[in-house]
Amino acid sequence: MSYLRRANWWYVCVAILVFGGLLTLSVRGSRHTSAASAAKVDIGQTATIPDAVTRVETVHPTKGGLARVASEPGSAHSFESAELFAKVSGYLEKLHVDIGSHVKQGDLLAEIDVPELTKDVESANASHQQAEAEVTQAEARIDSAIADQQAAEAKIAQAKAEVERCLAEVEFTRSQYERNRELNQLKGIPDRVVEEKLRQYQSAQASHHAAQSSVAAAEQLASAATSRIALARADLKVSQAKARVAQSQLDRANVMASYMKIASPYDGVITARNFHRGEFIRAPGQGGQAPLLAVDRTDKMRVVVKIPELEVPYVQPGDLAKVHFDALPLREFTGAVARIADSEDSLTRTMQVEIDLPNPDGAIRDRMYGRVEIALEDSPPGVTVPTTCLAGDVKDRQGNVFVLENGQARARQVQVGTDNGIQVEILSGLTVSDTVIVHPPGGLTDGSKVAVVTSVASRVTAGQTP
After folding, report:
1. Which fold has domain 117-258?
2. What distance in Å separates the CA atoms of residue 334 and residue 331, rounded to the nearest whole number?
């Protein structure tokens, strides 16, 4: 009885295994049938294509050739940047900015405490004021000497007038004396009258001589005044020279004092701060090596690109450039070639080109890395097809492709232009209405019967390799 029970269990297990196997085969068969149906749809029902017909992929040419474009890595740099050193040594008294601070041209950034420079300004200012006072005194002495000269000349004129008067008096008394002497000889008048007229005549002569002496004295005074004028003018020149020296010393003191304040040379952002308030700052001439601050102008950026030698002849200022930064994948920046080095690097055989980009929102940061595309030449006439359409080698710009005509592959010779490895220019031999075979099989010949499996036109226009 137990033997029969064990046999029944064995038959049940075998039945279960057989049923499971049949169920598995049924499922696999269903999946295979579905996959086969899907594959048939994807390949355009190739199951109906006879074995003698070659299956091919085709594409329609795109109008226009390949524009010559230089695509090279580039990096962004601040349009202007400056490291701000302290011209004078002293303690950092005030620091008005820090890293990341946005500043305007002329903004006060830092102040250095140098008391001796302040005193130098005060001393130079006092010396300058003293020199200016000496100039004023010299000018006053000139005016005084001129006044003395004018007074002396007036005295000369007065003395000369007195000489003329005395001379007239001499002539008058002389004539009286001579007339009285003649009358005395005729016994018309007594001797005492003649003597009186003689004394009057002699007195007039003495007055005349005195007047002449007064003229000489006045002339001497005038000459002395003239000398004092020349001396005063010489003193004025000395005083003016001293004043200029004092002014120069004052200007220098003010310049040195101005170095205690550091201002921004242009609008920008602070990118470095190497000292804190209270630290002692050494001037570069006294061993200082690190700048106090660094400021970058970021409202406009320079994008520096190294152009290979083969593309150098085609780059010109004004060429359109598109820049894509790795850190800003969703943005495209457009600019133009601003400047060209006109000299290649002898080691890399490249030439530096700079593109200016406006940066009003500050999105582009210094040293950002990206790729730059510079349009070197416009698209030439012709059409463009995938490079894989070419059959065989290209020699002397001549190549071959296969086009689809009435279910047959027809070989056609074409003139080949630029080939970038993905797409190739066809300058003549094809039109946009032709259907070109992609990846022509090795055994394909002119007149072979072919059937289209897939059209890759959509992938070509997306710039992908079929």
Report:
1. Helix Hairpins (1.10.287)
2. 10
Q: What is the DSSP string of 257-275?
A: HHTTEEE-SSSEEEEEE--
Instruction: Please report which helix (H) or strand (E) contains residue 180, including its range.
Output: helix 115-185
Of the candidates 72, 99, 236, 219, which has an alpha carbon nearest to the alpha carbon of residue 159?
A: 219
What is the rounded CA–CA span in Å between residue 36 and residue 13?
Answer: 35
> What pLDDT was estimated at residue 145?
83
The pLDDT of residue 16: 54
CA angle 83, 84, 85 (to 5 degrees): 115
Segments in the chain below pLDDT 70: 1-52, 378-379, 455-466
CA–CA separation, 226 and 220 (whole Å): 10
Q: In what order do the strands lie in the sheet with 261-263?
A: 261-263, 108-113, 90-95, 280-281
Full-model pTM? 0.56
* Per-residue model confidence (pLDDT) at position 351: 94
Three-state DSSP state, 143: helix
- What is the radius of gyration, based on Cα positions, of the chain? 56
**Alpha-carbon distance 271 to 225, whole Å?**
70
The secondary structure of 285-341 as a DSSP string is GGT--S-SEEEEEEEEEEEEEEEEGGGGGG--TT-EEEEEETT-TT--EEEEEEEEE
- The token pair at 217 is 């004295």
Cβ-based neighbours of 312, under 8 Å, separated by 6 or more: 344, 351
What is the reported pLDDT for 48?
54
- The pLDDT score that the predictor gives to residue 460 is 40
Domain boundaries, the chain: 54-65+381-461, 117-258, 297-377
Report whether 132 contacts 242 (CB < 8 A): no
Q: CA–CA separation, 130 vs 186, rounded Å?
A: 83
DSSP 271-284: EEE---TT-EE--G
What pLDDT, on a 0 to 100 scale, did the predictor assign at position 392? 86
- As its CATH architecture, domain 54-65+381-461 has Beta Barrel (2.40)
Return the CATH number of the domain spanning residue range 297-377: 2.40.30.170
Please say whether the beta carbons of 74 and 304 come within 8 A.
yes
Q: What pLDDT is attached to residue 32? A: 35
